[in-house]
Amino acid sequence: MAVIPARSRRCAGIVALLAALLLGAGCAAPNVRPHDARPVADGKTSKLPPPDVITDAGEYKAQSEYRIGPNDLIEVGVFQVAELGRAVRVNTQGQISLPLIGTLQAGGHTVAELETEIAARLRQGYIQDPQVTIFIKEFTSQRVTVEGAVRKPGIYALTGRTSLLQALAMSEGLDQLANPQGVVVFRTIEGRKMVAVFDIAAIRAGRTEDPQIYGDDIVVVDQSGPRTALRRFVESIPVFALFRPF
Question: Which residues form the domain of 36?
Fold first, then answer.
């Protein structure tokens, strides 16, 4: 798993982010500690909301489905036409090349959209009723930042569906000073910066769902010991696994 080394200015950015969080946490219950919190995802569903994507017009739009990006590895199959099946890497311009079709744009499309496009191309004089399936083998256009009390902080490529525990494993796990009840995930949802706190011990024990991590998420692990800006913020949140604005 390739990792992009952490840079010195990243620490300053995290400090500024935590300062903003603490300013926005004044209305939360200051005396509620993480281990007293009720493990919930939200009031209506056990699934955490995915982040936004930015459209060509620069607007935020909820990401209901993953959109293929440069360097993703996708596997294309055509039912009963084995010679057309292959794994292809999306190039830096978001394009792929396939037999009978040639070059076409894959970047920016969902799996369903690309399946429809390939089927339409094959239908133009090649196959009467093509049934195209696409499987994304590597999501390398998506990255997650892992910070704080982990053994190897950095920016990591998501090469498939990735949970919070798996993201932490990419950073070689929590270090000896980590507070397992203070793992914070930052995400943009519906155009707003959101944050949620997770208890890794509860996830490992199966008491709380292991949430999915998406590209551009930032995961920060609190340190045990003296109170820090992150610790004060964690203690201000009354429930786990609930994304809230800051």
Answer: 3-61+141-245
- Asked if the structure places residue 196 within a domain, the reply is yes
Report the alpha-carbon distance of residue 209 to residue 193 in Å, rounded: 22
Per-residue pLDDT reduced to its tens digit, 231-245: 676 666 655 555 555
Domain with residue 183: its CATH number is 3.10.560.10
Q: Which of 224, 201, 197 is nearest to 40 (CA)?
A: 197
Q: Which of 136, 1, 155 is nearest to 67 (CA)?
A: 136
Tokens standing for residue 206: 């199966």
pTM passes above 0.70: no
Residue 213, token pair as written in the block: 């991590």
Tokens of 98: 């396939």
- 145 and 238 within one domain: yes
- Rounded distance between C-alpha atoms, residue 197 and residue 235, angstroms: 10
